[in-house]
Amino acid sequence: MAKTITNEAVKAPYPKITDKRLEQIRFTMEDLKVDAVVITYLPNIRYLTNFSGSNAVIFITFEEIHFFTDDRYEEQIKTELFPLPNLNTYITREVWKYVKKKKVLKQATTLSFESDRVTYSDAVAIRNQLRPLKFKPAVNLVERFTVPKSPEEVDYIQKACDISLKTLDKVLKKVKPGVSEIDLAIDIAYVSRQLGSEGDPFDIIVTSGPRGAIVHGKPTDRIIKPGDLIIFDFGSKVNGFCSDMTRTVAVGKATKEQKSMYKMLVQAKDAAVTNVRPGMNGKTLDEYSRSIIKKGGFGNNFQHSLGHGIGLMAHEMPTITFRMNDQIVPEHAVIAIEPGVYFPDKFGMRVEDLVQVTRTGGKYITKAPNELVVV
């Protein structure tokens, strides 16, 4: 059994960019020669509708949007969904049967789906329930249109960045020999929630001493020692939108070599931020930073990508890397820039900030200091 909710109950304001995203999806439908698309990947659904729950499916036709969720969210969607034009909402736990029985897509003969988000077995099962609709796969059906962020979305990311910076300031006061990596990670999670974060957008990274050479190392019970370098890599969330910040901290003292390396990483980060432009290939942007690290003699110690997009997910398109040629950085994208160097059995260091891509270069969203912090 299903319930239909009238559009009058849907009141949430929405950013103007949503209309543009829907328009771009419908242009894609024309290119694909399909009558409708089905979207099941929850982050994409949230970008288009503002729905934050755990179960939903939307169908987009040239004239209408059909939103499905279950009875757990019947009250939530009355105020959470964007007031999209020609939006129809349904409460049911049997989406595919309802669509077929009620002929929701009666004017459609072809349907495109997110082939990079739906498993083959699921796609076959759905197709079998919606026959005689013809299915057509599409890659990046929605994601490429959500890379540019609206002013409202950037504001949420900015607030998440501010929470992370305040969190780091508080946690640094607890850094001393004798505490463990996991102690500090727990403090980050607790303090960021106190300051308003909705949760951790990814697993918190706290690595110290020789473990700093593990690029994405999980915090352990290793005890912090004098002379250690500690890598803190974590984020916060505001209205679903993520931040991502990395800073390296020296305990007691840092060597001249370490201070020089960190200064080099900051220069590499700034070079990318200064030179980024809308339409740039991510591989080209990566080279602005990587060339500085290579010139410093540490090219072999920097093997991971320079950065990535960020939004409702901590890692989104584009990927800023020397390994790919097809990652274009559009205007208004928010990207993370995170150069680092790693020395097995010794230490590692990384610095990471978020920036918004503008026509004149990158605009810093992270407001963290660039100096190597010594505690």
What does this structure look like?
The chain is α+β, with helices and mostly antiparallel strands and 375 residues long. It has 2 domains: 3-146, Creatine Amidinohydrolase, Chain A, domain 1 (3-Layer(aba) Sandwich), CATH 3.40.350.10; 151-374, Creatinase/methionine aminopeptidase superfamily (Creatine Amidinohydrolase). Helix content is 32%, strand content 23%. It contains 10 helices and 22 strands. The protein has helices at 17-32, 42-49, 76-80, 95-101, 120-130, 143-146, 151-172, 181-194, 256-275, 282-295, and strands at 3-5, 36-39, 57-61, 65-69, 87-91, 110-114, 134-138, 205-208, 229-234, 237-238, 241-242, 245-250, 280-281, 307-309, 316-320, 328-329, 334-337, 340-343, 347-350, 353-358, 361-364, 373-374. The strands form 6 sheets. The protein has a 7-stranded mixed beta sheet. Strands 15-14-17-20-21 form a 5-stranded antiparallel beta sheet. A 4-stranded mixed beta sheet has the order 8-9-12-22, covered by helices on one side. β14 and β15 form a beta hairpin. It is elongated, with a radius of gyration of 23 Å.
Please supply descriptive tags for the structure shown above.
single chain; 375 residues; alpha+beta; Creatine Amidinohydrolase, Chain A, domain 1; Creatine Amidinohydrolase; 2 domains; 7-stranded mixed beta sheet; 5-stranded antiparallel beta sheet; 10 helices; 22 strands; 32% helix; elongated
Show the helix and strand layout.
Elements (H helix, E strand, L loop, with lengths): L2 E3 L11 H16 L3 E4 L2 H8 L7 E5 L3 E5 L6 H5 L6 E5 L3 H7 L8 E5 L5 H11 L3 E5 L4 H4 L4 H22 L8 H14 L10 E4 L20 E6 L2 E2 L2 E2 L2 E6 L5 H20 L4 E2 H14 L11 E3 L6 E5 L7 E2 L4 E4 L2 E4 L3 E4 L2 E6 L2 E4 L8 E2 L1
Parallel strand pairs: 2-6, 4-5, 6-7, 12-22
Antiparallel strand pairs: 1-5, 2-3, 3-4, 8-9, 9-12, 10-11, 13-16, 14-15, 14-17, 17-20, 18-19, 20-21
Helix pairs in contact: 7-8, 9-10
